[in-house]
Amino acid sequence: MVRVLSYNILIGGARRVEPLLNMLRAGAPDVIGLVEAIDERVVAELAAALGMEYRLSGRAKNRRGWQAAVLSRLPIRSTNTYITPPLIKQPLLEVTVETPDGQLLTVFVIHITAEFSKGWRGNQQRRREVQEVLRLMEQQRGKRHLLLGDFNTIAPRDRVRGSRFLHYMLDARLYRQLLPGPTNHPANLNAVMPRGLRFLKPALQLVPQSKLLGALLDSCDWLYAPRGGIDLLTNAGYSDCFRALRPRQPGFTWPAALPAGRIDYLFASPELVPQLEACEVLTAGADGLSGGLASDHLPVLAAFGPAPSFSNAL
pLDDT (tens digit, 9 = 90+) per residue, 105-157? Predict the structure, then answer.
């Protein structure tokens, strides 16, 4: 069995190495895809503590940008990074590992842009990025591969707890417990609301204080929850691992302190789907540590059984 984990570690994870290790050890993964892995020292420390080697994507051209990382206890056979104009958040990282049964498994890690305050234009940007990822993965057609990461969007039939999300956005303490010090709190309503709707901010600040208003906000999530791009992946034949095995569970991954929506995914290629045995969201670490104390996202873990001997042989 091969266990693969996807995790957004929040702006590099500095000063949170031990909580992050706690969460990672809870999943006992063989391969880890990290998003917002902007501090190589943190990545190297995590890899050393877990007995893994690692690869980094580097940053997008002409941008301060984020980057991705893959950590693996399985032998890494090849690495590629794709830096193309549609991918404005980070490059697409591709790492191929050799599984214990001698087969190859390719893992792609991506961080799709948020741009929530741009409304439908942000949604269109996310769709363009997913289309570009599909184009870049075309070379792996017919081979076993995974796409994982933070997609900053909701699957078409998933629901969102907008009242929880709003509570998180209005309570800076929930974020600053992860980034102590002078760092500004980026989780604010201006970051997610189109400029033309910001006149509603005073009313929205009342929602966390009212069960009725919270229920109303939750019931109309289709009006405000971004849903750009997941349908493109499923229409292309990729399987949403969590939803495939847990069709009725919410699987919320963000924000970790008050989970309100599912924006972190693992997608399996058609060749890999028959091997999918388990998938879960990890809410606590190896010793019971709350996931909200390690990052603002929760990790997603999927487990795959051995491949048929004739598939994608080394």
Answer: 999 999 999 888 777 888 999 999 999 999 999 999 999 999 999 999 999 99
Token readout for 267 is 């997608």
- For residue 267, count CB atoms less than 10 angstroms from its CB and return exposed for 0-12, middle for 13-18, buried for 19 or more: buried
More confident residue, 203 or 99: 99
CA dist 101 and 203 (Å) reads 58
Alpha carbon 200 to chain centroid, angstroms? 29
Q: In what order do the strands lie in the sheet with 276-281?
A: 53-56, 69-72, 31-35, 2-8, 300-304, 276-281
**Residue 200 located in a structural domain:** no
Domain that holds residue 78: 2-156+227-304
The CATH number of whichever domain residue 110 belongs to comes to 3.60.10.10
% residues pLDDT > 90 (the chain): 69
**Lowest mean pLDDT, pick from 55-64, 221-230, 248-257:** 55-64
Residues 6+ positions from 135 with CB-CB distance below 8 Å = none
Q: How many domains does the chain have?
A: 1
5: which 2 tokens?
A: 């984990």
Are the C-beta atoms of residues 90 and 60 closer than 8 Å to each other?
yes
- Spatial CA neighbour of 254 closest among 219, 209, 294: 294
3-state secondary structure 250-293: CCCCECCCCCCECCEEEEECCCCHHHEEEEEECCECCCCCEHHH
